[in-house]
Write a structure and sequence with these properties.
The complex is a heterodimer. By secondary structure, chain A is of the alpha/beta class. Chain A has 11 helices and 12 strands. In chain A, the strands form 2 sheets. In chain A, strands 6-7-8-3-9-10-12-11 form an 8-stranded mixed sheet, sandwiched between helices. In chain A, helix 4 crosses helix 5 and helix 7 packs parallel to helix 8. By secondary structure, chain B is of the alpha/beta class. Chain B contains 12 helices and 12 strands. Chain B starts with a helix and ends in a 5-residue tail after the last strand. Classes of the chains: A alpha/beta, B alpha/beta. At the A-B interface, helix 7, helix 8, helix 9, helix 10 and helix 11 of A face helix 8, helix 9, helix 10 and helix 11 of B.
Chain lengths: 325, 331
């Protein structure tokens, strides 16, 4: 039994008669205590997939199809009130920019107590001591000093620790980490990742880890899903993605990463840019940029199919992907 | 470019013991009444040289003073002490009027292309602005179109506004503007940090191309060692306002000597699951430049710290030829 099953999820944005499929027919599952990486370039729909799971999408967008089964319940059938009880308690989010995720006009402790009061019903001294305990848990030694500060008085790394403390405060079963370390430098990134792994280990949390840092994904994820133009291009255990990538996009993505241990005079880059979800190319969305594109790619849409041993690919180079479901 | 060739080139920019101390309020009312201020030692004695046609990479954590150093070299901040030599002349005390003709020769590209381009101006106006400010003669329209071409954007972009562009395209525009006056020296402050890997590769390739074409010298400021490696000839590692290691790029990456450089490098996860990731996790925050530790600045976080590190400032050592390091391990 999986913790989360997302089936045929489709999130669209509407502008007049124009429809932009920002998340287009996404299906994946997430086991208990699993870390699933969502990787891809900006605009691939990684963040929106994560946000669709907790139904926090911008007002111009709408989830038009699919099922999000969380512990067997379809989150799309719940009312907004029921959803609020799940957000922050059973599913929580860590945002990319901690400074904008925290409210600048309240002290850290007030923002943390809010969450504890709403979901755990803690008040007064009880809530206060829980805040201290949570902050200590995320490696903030001066917990009392920190909780009395405002977000602008803390560094980016410190704010992100606070966000992690908040995210894990109600011991959620699922955390959606949306580029939690992108705004931080490597040393702080390391501290934050180490911390997340430690807290995850303690509470047996599952994590959806949204990132464009392939290096990081290779080190901490159990499975990786490569996204392109709102669709999953490839989904496989981490070792397969990095050792035997099958989708041309995954291969290209891996080639573009500059590595400090290799010096290249001219760096590889994928030609063109990410497809605009409002004007998707015909057939496979990746074909205008693909180095292995064939004639059929211009008009047949590939299906995400298992090509063996839990390795899902959506590319017409694999005959299995041509079949209609 | 071969190493021998680099040596032949002259020093274009040189700083000697450059310092910048900022004074800030302590936030305490009594200190305020007593006019007592806190001194932030952002750049604390940096001596570096950037040679002609060469790229110097300046790396370090956020808050180590790299950007302040870049701005000091441009004289956007007044140095507290020390000298900046640009093409043989000391520019550290020049007046603004005397600086202006020199500024043509040195340009700065900023990290965030969303805030560095004026949203109300077309690309032609943005790129033409430096030409206008310095009264460059010639057909301005022709010049801006040519600049757009140089950075890989076609003529249709000339009348567009920044909001119509992607992050990578904006950064190309910022680069086009920076080379519009044919400078010899360009400072690139985290130019690729906000971009995707694929776009980052395109921008880095563009920078290499422009360097070959126009004979530019770059100072690349970044915390991303992987990107810096690709375009730098030499690397300087900065920690809390000081340069702790300085050598050719290959030398720094193949034989990192300073413990901080080693930790910085090991912290980067390589996209290869056959290479194990065993980083050293530094505890705590980097110490603040307002409260610099005595002795070696790195000793409170250094895994190899010895007794001497706490009390004595390390000197610059050259344990290997052309490889400078500031650490007691190599005394």
């Amino acid at each position: 039994m999986d913790l989360l099953r997302v089936q045929g999820l489709r999130t669209c944005f509407f502008d007049g008669n124009n429809e932009a499929k920002a998340v287009d027919d996404i299906t994946f599952n997430l086991g208990y205590k699993e870390i699933l990486g969502l990787v891809g370039e900006s605009g691939a729909g990684k963040t929106l997939t994560g946000r669709s799971v907790i139904r926090l999408i911008p007002p111009t967008g709408r989830i038009v199809a699919g099922k999000i089964l969380f512990k067997g319940r379809n989150l799309l059938d719940l009312s907004e009130d029921e959803m609020r009880k799940i957000r922050g308690k059973e599913i929580s989010v860590i945002q990319q920019d901690p400074l904008s995720a925290l409210n600048p006009s309240f002290k850290i402790k007030d923002q943390m107590i809010d969450v504890l009061r709403l979901h755990l019903g803690l008040r007064g001294d009880e809530a206060y001591s829980k805040v201290v305990q949570l902050l200590r848990q995320v490696g903030i030694s001066d917990a009392i000093g920190t909780m009395n500060k405002y977000p602008h008085q803390l560094s980016g790394g410190m704010c992100q620790r606070v966000m992690i403390a908040v995210a894990f405060s109600c011991e959620p079963s699922l955390v959606i980490a949306d580029e939690p370390t992108t705004a931080l430098d490597v040393i702080t990134q390391l501290q934050i990742i180490d911390l997340m792994k430690m807290v995850q280990d303690k509470h047996n949390t599952s994590i959806i880890f949204v990132t464009h840092n392939m290096g990081l994904a290779s080190k901490i994820c159990d499975r990786v899903s490569v996204m392109y133009a709102g669709k999953i291009a490839e989904l496989a255990p981490v070792s397969k993605i990095f050792q035997s990538p099958k989708h041309p996009y995954t291969k290209a993505l891996l080639k573009t990463i500059p590595r400090y241990d290799v010096k290249a005079r001219i760096l590889y880059s994928i030609k063109g840019s990410m497809a605009n979800p409002a004007y998707l190319p015909s057939g496979c969305s990746f074909h205008p940029r693909c180095e292995e594109a064939m004639k059929t790619c211009y008009d047949v849409v590939p299906m995400l199919t298992d090509v063996g041993e839990e390795h899902f690919v959506s590319c017409l180079l694999f005959p299995e992907c041509r079949r209609r479901r | 470019m071969s190493k021998a060739a680099i040596k032949l080139h002259n020093e274009l920019v040189k700083t000697i013991d450059l310092m910048k101390y900022f004074e800030e309020s302590t936030g305490n009312l009594i200190d305020y009444a007593k006019r007592k201020k806190r001194v932030v030692r952002a750049v604390d004695g940096v001596s570096l040289a950037i040679h002609q046609f060469e790229t110097l990479g300046l790396v370090g954590e956020s808050g180590c003073g790299k950007s302040t150093f870049g701005r000091l070299v441009m004289r956007l901040y007044e140095p507290t002490s020390g000298k900046i030599i640009f093409k043989g002349t000391d520019i550290s005390n020049l007046s603004n009027a005397k600086m202006k003709p020199l500024r043509k020769n040195m340009q700065l590209v900023f990290q965030n292309p969303y805030s560095s381009l004026n949203p109300r101006k077309t690309l032609r106006q943005i790129i033409g602005q430096p030409l206008k400010a310095h009264n460059v003669s010639g057909n301005r329209k022709q010049q801006t179109l040519q600049l757009l071409n140089e950075v890989g954007l076609d003529e249709t972009f000339a009348n567009k506004y920044p909001h119509e562009l992607s992050g990578g395209q904006r950064q190309r525009v910022a680069i086009a503007r920076s080379i519009s006056l044919n400078p010899e020296f360009v400072i690139l402050d985290e130019v690729t940090s906000a971009l995707d890997a694929s776009v980052q590769a395109q921008i880095l390739n563009l920078l290499t191309k422009l360097q070959d074409e126009f004979g530019l010298s770059y100072l690349v400021i970044s915390h991303d060692l992987s990107a810096v490696r690709q375009i730098s000839h030499r690397i300087a590692v900065m920690y809390l306002g000081r340069i702790v290691e300085y050598a050719s790029a290959d030398e720094v990456f193949d034989n990192p000597l300073h413990p901080y450089t080693q930790i910085l490098m090991k912290a980067i996860p390589l996209p290869d699951i056959n290479i194990p990731w065993e980083p050293t996790i530094l505890k705590g925050e980097p110490p603040s430049p307002a409260k610099v530790p005595s002795g070696c600045r790195f000793y409170p976080r250094c895994p190899f710290a010895m007794g001497i590190c706490k009390t004595q400032d390390p000197f610059l050592m050259t344990p290997r030829s052309n490889h400078i390091v500031e650490c007691h391990l190599y005394d």
